[in-house]
Amino acid sequence: MxxxxxxxxxxxxxxxxxxxxxxxxxxxxxxxxxxxxxxxTQFLYRELTKRGHEVTVIGPRDPDAKPxxxxxxxxxxxxxxxxxxxxxxxxxxxxxxxxxxxDWDFDVVLGQTATELMELGLWLRATRGIPLVAVNTxxxxxxxxxxxxxxxxxxxxxxxxxxxSFLKLADSTSASAYNGCDGLVVLSNGLKRYWxxxxxxxxxxxxxxxxxxxxxxxxxxxxxxxxxxRKGARLLVVCRxxxxxxxxxxxxxxARYIAPANPDATLTLLGDGPDHDLFRxxxxxxxxxxxxxxxxxxxxxxxxxxYHHADLFTYTxxxxxxxxxxxxxxxxxxxxxxxxxxxxxxxxVEHDLTGLLVDPGPDAEMxxxxxxxxxxxxxxxxxxxxxxxxxxxxxxxxRSAPHKMxxxxxxxxxxxxAHRDANPPDMRNPRLATAFHGGRWLAINSIVYGLGHLRxxxxxxxxxRRQPAWNDLPDVPAVRPPSHARLG
Length: 488
Known about the structure:
With 488 residues, the protein is α/β, with parallel strands linked by helices. The chain has helices at 36-50, 95-100, 118-128, 140-147, 156-179, 189-197, 213-216, 247-261, 276-285, 303-309, 324-331, 344-348, 364-379, 382-399, 402-422, 430-451, and strands at 21-26, 54-60, 74-77, 79-81, 89-91, 108-112, 132-135, 184-186, 204-206, 234-238, 266-270, 292-296, 312-315, 336-339, 355-358. Strands 3-2-1-6-7-8-9 form a seven-stranded parallel β-sheet, sandwiched between helices. The longest helix is centred in the middle third of the chain and has 24 residues, at 156-179. The radius of gyration is 22 Å and the shape is globular.
């Protein structure tokens, strides 16, 4: 099946057109491990630069970054390491740095960050009048279990305390920050409702992420699955190995329901992260070690081959602001079985057209059984899988076309300028603005730094497989694979 090539860009005029100078606030200047938000930032950097915009990436200084790891235009801020996530650094709001950078002259700032680095954008708006567009990249209710110590993970009291303190503070702080912006980008309609319910009144733009054709429209490589993993029965999931991704739940569903119903079924779990070893031990305890495969994290360019040689993408996470791997699987013609999360995954998977969505509750055990039934039904029906595969690739190529994402961001920038003009900041007291935003930045980051010591340092990319740098992708025409057939 050859999907229509809807990913060709229809560029606007470049040159002197506004915005000429764009700053992107990013949590990484070097990508130590797979991260969907930073992949999206890299795409925006490359495509906006190609169109003639001057794009500067601003993020924390990474002492391990080499010159070839960095974008051509970058500003690295002083930072401290996050203890439980090697490779992650927390930028610091040193007042001397802010005073020194008062001459920053950007046309617009895009806050593609999940940290208090957003305060830098708010400070630039308050002191320089620069329009600011924020991007929501984290579903807060799903994040807090990641920082909890293992000893507290099963404590209802600890969860109650985190929900009443951490979540309430994080939600209110984020909503306040977003209301200080000239626009908020969310990745799904569900998240638009989420932030509207929490009092965000700034314009909200729903802009789904795109899929990079120069990676995902290339011909697949040789079959990477273990020799004993029979075609026609291969389940695949790609994600960071953290609690929030509900990998343990997927392993239990596979062990209790899928494997007994289909003895040939196998489950491959690509990725790495703090709970990787826990998930391997869970597979052993469930008696499915021989039916599961944990190959680790792979560079982005290797993923199309895994998607092509799999038969079904299974996703139990309920924490996704978007779920980029779901888009990649659909783009590659791989049907998806997933829980309906009401957010990013639900917006991508069209039930019974490109995959199957399963109600996740309120009875979790019954939901697990329904999830398994959906997966087994597709494993037993290769022709139905093929229909879903064809639909998935066609629909994803239309929905996730790069030019659509880029045009929507440019529209959001224009809307942000209009919003700034209608709501100009009071720039009469820059010292007060510096003290306020710098103080809030420092206070929240101090909390984050402390939370980072609740768990020991994680292994996040144990095989050291390098993710693409900012300018790694070749500027060549996409080459479609000849077929998405998955008849096994």
